[in-house]
Amino acid sequence: MELTKYEEDMYNGEYGEGKAECMEILVSLGKIYDAEKMIPITSAQVSGVSYKTIGDAGLDFVVDLGKKADVTLETMLNPAGVDIENWEELGFSEEFTKKQIDIIKGYESIGVMSTCTCTPYLIGNTPMLNDHVSWSESSAVCYVNSVIGARTNREGGPSALLAAIVGRTPYYGNHILENRVADMIFDVSYDFNNEAEIGALGYYVGQIVNDKKPYFKLTSNPGRNNLKLLGAALASSGAVSQYHVEGITPEAEFARNHDSFDELETIDIDETIIKDTISKLSTTDKIPDLVCLGCPHASITEIQKVTQLVKGKKLVKDLWICTSKAIKAISQQCGYLDIIEQAGGKIVSDTCMVVAPIEELDYEVIGVNSAKAANYVPNMCKLDVVYDTVENLIDMISE
Ligand code: F3S
Known about the structure:
The structure is a single chain. This protein is an alpha/beta fold. It has 16 helices and 15 strands. It has helices at 5-11, 17-32, 51-66, 87-90, 94-109, 138-148, 157-166, 195-209, 223-237, 252-257, 271-281, 300-310, 325-333, 336-343, 371-381, 390-396; strands spanning 38-40, 44-46, 75-77, 113-116, 134-135, 168-170, 184-188, 214-217, 244-245, 266-269, 290-293, 318-323, 346-349, 365-368, 384-387. The strands form four sheets. Strands 13-12-11-14-15 form a five-stranded parallel beta sheet, sandwiched between helices. The chain has a four-stranded parallel beta sheet with strand order 4-3-2-5. Helix 8 (195-209) runs parallel beside helix 9 and helix 8 (195-209) packs across helix 11. Bound molecules: FE3-S4 cluster. FE3-S4 cluster binds at residues 78-79, 118, 137, 139, 232, 295-297, 322, 352, 354-355, 372-373, 376.
C-alpha cells in the first residue's frame, strides 16, 4: 500500500508506539481489502460502548489503548448501556453502571467526546458532502453515506477508534466514488402515511439487498426523520451502508446517470408488502408496559411531536424517549421535557432500549415505532415487541 511520508513515519513509530500500532492494524486491514492508500478522515463515531455488548474484554481494550495514544479529530461515542445521570431512577444496577462509567472514562481519557449517541449528525458531528469519515454504528453509517453524502465503510468500533487516532482510514469500499452506485431499484407505488410504514419498507428491502445499495423511487419526500428510520431498518435486516432516493439524496443523480443503472433489476413495492411487513414486526398483540421511542436517537422535532401527543394526558405505562444529552438539553429549554414528565414520560439520554440491559428491568412488552428496534428487541433483550406508530403507541398507554 502506498503511504505518504507522514503516514510512513507514524507507521515506523516516529509519533509514538500507540500510533504505530494503530497504523499497523489499519494497513493490514487495508491490505485485506486491496486498498491502494490511506485517506485522511474528518470525523469518527465509535460503537462498542455499552458494557452489555463489549463486556470486560472491551473495557480492557479501551483502558489499554488509553495508555498509548489520543484521538486527533472529532470523535463521538455510540449509546452506552445506561443513562449515566438517571440510571438509578430508571432501575439499572450500580454494578453495571460502574463498569459503564469506567468504559466512558477510558474513551474520554483519549480525547473522545463522552456524549453517547447514534445520531451524532444531529448534535454537531455533521460531516460535509464527500468528506471521508470513519463511523461504526450501522444506522449512523447509513445516514451519513446516504442523506449527507459523506463516505464511510461500515466500520467496527475498534477500526473507527484506530482511524480517529491516526486520522486516516484505508481507501476502499464506500470511500471510492465508483462503489457508491445503485445495485437494485425499488419502485414504490405506495404513499407513506407514517414512520412505521417507511420503517417497514427499510426492513423488507434490507432482507432482499443485504449489503448492496438500493435505489428508491418514492412518491413523496419522507423527510429527514423518516430517512433516519429507513436507513436504520435497512442496516438491521440487511447490512446496507448506503441507499439512494430519487430526487432527494445527494448522490441519487450520480447513481441514476451511471452506465450500469439501466441494467439494474427493478422490484415493485405495493401496499400489501408494507402492511404484511408491519404485522410481522410485532411479536404480540398485548399492550406494551413500556413504550420506547428514539431508535435511532430522537431529533428535537420528533420530541416536539411526542410533546404534542402527551400534552395534558396521563400515561398509565412507562414512556422513554431515547436521545443524546444535547437534544435532551434543548428539549428542556423548549419546555418539552416538563410536558413529557408531567404526563409521566421520561427523556432518557445516551443509551437506548437495545444496548441497555432492559431485560433486567420489570418489562415484558416494549412498544416501538422503529423497525430496527422491533427487529433487535426480541433477540437482544428477549422481550416481546409491539411495532406501531407513535400516535397509536401513545394512545395505547394513555388514560
Ligand atoms: Fe441507536 Fe440503539 Fe437504535 S444505538 S439505532 S437507538 S438500537
